[in-house]
Design brief:
heterodimer, A: about 110 residues, mainly beta, B: alpha+beta, Cytochrome Bc1 Complex, Chain D, domain 2, 3-stranded mixed sheet, two-stranded antiparallel sheet, 11 strands
Chain lengths: ~110, ~280
């Protein structure tokens, strides 16, 4: 597991049924590209977030494939319709096999 | 006659130069809190009427990043700072949080730094952190402008966000302040420029593609888009001195601390913006 990886997500706590809400997500991750070499000339192995998934009550909202050129601390902002109260789950998959998860609940106002 | 016209034109140009302007006059609200980005200049500033935060000189996109703590990339490092403050280090088995349970107790501290301590030395926030580390935690001091120091000083600075900068410049601090003022107006380097040549005489004008600010330090440590990390104020001084092709003073030197005090006093009345977003 890479060091200092911290997911941050902002989801409104409440929404009207059927409302479109804006979700922001950011994971602090150094996103090692696999192109760099260390001081001894050895290639530093690639370690990036290669997939990001957001789901609402089990239904996929967004599913993203990330490649080596994506910047440090990848940030996603997207919209989602909230038909009912439930949980947004956010999952980031790391090249080194680590999986980072975060859950946010939305209530219907 | 021609020469006279040329002189008159030059006079108008230089007059325009001294009448620097801030790019926008819109208000900065961060997470619902109004941040003061301009203030009447303190009495000791002879050549400037109003002081403006560097935020006012940035493009709209850059300005917008600072209005929302989620969009503010500096908060990635603030989170690092909170984690560092909670982690135990050193021979005493303590973390920052062992004594300082809640970072909120630092409210107001950043607005008063640097200050003169009991033994008559000018101390900065970085000095306070390292004193705690070496004397109370039994830990190695952090690099003065390293990432850990920037992260933790950003957490401490954040607690004062919105409060007006108000450093003591009289009494014991006066000699340090005078030294800082001398440094501010001293021409240095191959380009033979002082801080004042850009940040007092020409703020508001363009220096190539960049909009010159007043060089205020109320937002430090600041997240810079150019290097995507938090930058400490001494690192910024060092970068500025390299730009005018001078040999920079050492990071954490007495010269830079004196300059930091003088610059802080030039920003009296501006809100602390830590962590700000700049180019």
């Amino acid at each position: 597991m890479a060091e200092n990886v911290r997911p941050r997500v902002r989801v409104p706590k409440t929404a009207a049924a059927g409302e479109v809400i804006t979700i922001k997500s950011l994971i602090s991750h150094k996103m090692e590209s696999g192109q760099r070499k260390d001081g001894d000339g050895n290639v530093i192995p690639r370690s990036i977030i290669n997939r990001f998934v957001c789901a609402f009550n089990g239904e996929t909202v967004i599913d993203v494939t990330l490649e080596a050129a994506v910047s440090t601390n990848p940030f996603f902002e997207f919209e989602a319709v909230v038909p009912e109260a439930g949980d947004f789950t956010f999952t980031w998959y790391d090249d080194d096999g680590s999986v980072y998860e975060e859950t946010k609940s939305v209530a219907i106002a | 006659m021609k020469l006279q016209n040329a002189i008159a034109a030059a006079a108008i140009l230089s007059f325009a130069g001294t009448m620097g302007f801030a790019q926008t006059d819109n208000e900065l609200t961060v997470e619902g809190q109004l941040i003061s980005t301009e203030a009447a200049a303190p009495a000791h500033m002879e050549n400037v009427g109003t002081v403006y935060s560097g935020w006012r000189f940035r493009s709209e996109e850059t300005q917008a990043m600072q209005t929302d703590d989620f969009d503010n990339s500096g908060f990635v490092f603030v989170d690092d700072g909170f984690a560092l403050m909670a982690s135990v280090d050193g021979s005493e088995g303590k973390s920052c949080a062992s004594c300082h349970e809640d970072a909120e107790e630092f409210a107001g501290l950043k607005a008063q730094m640097p200050r003169v301590n009991d033994s008559g030395e000018l101390e900065t926030l970085e000095d306070l952190v390292n004193t705690c580390r070496t004397e109370r935690m039994g830990a190695e001091p952090w690099k003065y402008n390293g990432s850990q120091m920037a992260a933790v000083t950003a957490v401490i600075g954040l607690q004062s966000r919105g409060l007006p900068v108000d450093v003591a410049i009289d009494g014991a601090a006066e000699s340090f302040w005078e030294r800082g003022k001398d440094l501010y107006y001293a021409r240095v380097g191959q380009l033979d420029l002082s801080c004042a040549n850009c940040h007092e005489d020409n703020y508001g004008t363009m220096i190539r593609a960049d909009h010159l600010s007043q060089g205020q330090i109320n937002g430090f440590p600041t997240y810079r888009l150019k290097n995507a990390k938090l930058n400490t104020v001494h690192s910024r001084f060092s970068g500025c001195m390299k730009n005018v092709r001078a040999e920079p003073y050492a990071i954490g030197s007495d010269e830079f601390k004196a300059l930091e005090l003088y610059l802080a006093s030039r920003g009296t009345g501006l809100s602390v913006e830590t962590p700000s977003i700049r180019n």
